[in-house]
Amino acid sequence: MPRSEDGFEQTPPDAAPRAIPATRLDAQRRADRIRAFQAELQTLADDGALTLTADQQDRVSRHHDAQLAALRQAFDVDSDETTRQMSRGMQAAAFLGAVAFSAALVSFFSHYWGLLSTPLQVATVAGAPLLALAGVEYAARRERTQYVASLLALVACAAVVTEVMILGHVFNTRSSPSALLGCAAFALALGYGYGFRLPYAGGLLFLMAYVSSAIAVLRGLYWTEGLRTDEVLLMTVGALLLLPRLHARWVAPWRAALLDPVARGVPAGVGLFTLLALTINGGWSLLPLRIPHTALLYELLAIPIAIVTILVGVRRQSQTLYVLGVIFLLLFLLGRFVDWWWDWMPSYLFFLLLGAFTLALLAGLRRARRTFIARGIA
Amino acid sequence: MTRFLPARVGIPLMLSIAITGAILVHAASNRRGTPETIITLTERELGLAYRPPLTSADTTELALRLRVHHHAARSPGQPRAAIDEPAMRALGFTCDPRRDNRTGEPRRGDCSRELDRLGYVVLEYDGPAWQAHLTALEAEPRQDDERPRLSDERTNASRLLAVDAGPDVAALRRRYPDGARYLILAAKIGADVEVSRAYGSKASIPIAERRLRGQVLEVVPARINVPRERRRFFESLPPPQTLDELHIVITDGVSENLTETKPRYELRLAIGQRMEPWIVDARPLP
What we know:
The structure holds two protein chains of two kinds. Chain A is mostly helical. Helices cover 77% and strands 0% of the residues of chain A.
């Protein structure tokens, strides 16, 4: 099996032709481009703008058919909009399946728990993640779409979290941030190894919770106080936002392309949520300022940060950052408007102003879009 | 990694094994050697943990819950706070309960905004603090409808009271060497301002009389697992008395418990090197 520079195997297996992209995502994009090209070529021919000779048409058509067949063979890519919609349905089914299997796992432990001796309890909860991992690897080797493998990967993560909790109960151990670190390491390793986004996102969330809680412990606080939304969490988020740079340097391009949206989106989402919380309650802040002044400071920072997030999203063509930035801006402004106007303004006027503001925001975004098009950025 | 165990599965696999190993090593190190304490408690202090009705039919899990008497620590008129100001300072609490805040605006440094800290709490079992609590309760003027509560307090309430706290187990044990009466456990401790019944509310307490005090928000771990070998004992216990069996008499709208409920069992609880408990043995009470 070929290896990338980071030592992990590349998918698909080495039987794939060299011209085939490395991931299903890239393969799907290539298939989409081919179909778009074919449709546009037909339109050009219908308009009389460009007509290929029969030989050229034949060569292009044969080349594309061979490419699409190879892509289907390697990754089972969607060949049209109908199969694409069905794939989305399968993705949703896989996610729901993972949730259901995880719930079944927890319920199973709960149901037979008291009937097992302590060694058997340990063996059962410790064996569950290993069994799920074996299933992930088996499914990944046999299945091109990776739906079942990704489902089992989520179940494996749930099994590890369950194991940590249950063994803690069995031995009456004190809860501590170390459990978060164990779960983070497992989920990140699994998500990274197979290129699965959801376990990777879960791992990042666990990692942020661990860093914040560990810092709380160092400050002499009870560890759950670290799960508050304050500047420690913002600093953790800032450090994790450097992750895509590490990806670019150390990680195989196909893996970086898969995981970068998660590595940007999860910390950015947590950071913006924290900022939003600090604008609402400055008392959560650790800054040595008066509480109303702290809230005001974060209110002043919120709009520039939202605009920067939106601009970075546009420039880097990151839909995740763009959407997060817009949602944050809307939620922040909605909260402020309620604070400022709700009490002294009739509700109809409040909602009218809110609608007018949304139109203004749309106009602003449209203008920004035109600017980007004119500059050839977007 | 080999072809049969590629890195993408091998690393999570090793991590999973390492997580299990770390928890087992932690548990073994707690139970290694002589326990820090072995104390005998009754059902009043270690009752069966509550299971929500929706899950009780679907779970065979059995656990006990350590009950710390919080009322005594909070009740007004106590001679001193359960966790007093010097102990709170030793734990790292820095807020100033005597700071004037007439505006009512939340400010940094207010005790109500202080974050909870981890400490070790000394729990006294059926000792002077419990007797003082009962005496204070009996001395309080009360209405007739409060008598059942007093009776319930004498016969059912937990006799474990927090009497001190600190960051260092060894120092606390030197101060409270009697392991059969004083239990030391880790706890989540919060800050509060001592309330005296002489004043209607915290805001009306004269600044000079305000005292920082601690409250045990949660003993960790409070939930103690019942292993399978002890399960049969707890399942064979007679069911707890119902309200009918307690011969509750209602006279002029006042209910009175004429029969005292009794704890059904007592057990020995060991606290290990890492201050984590386990059940040593249990026996029924007559």
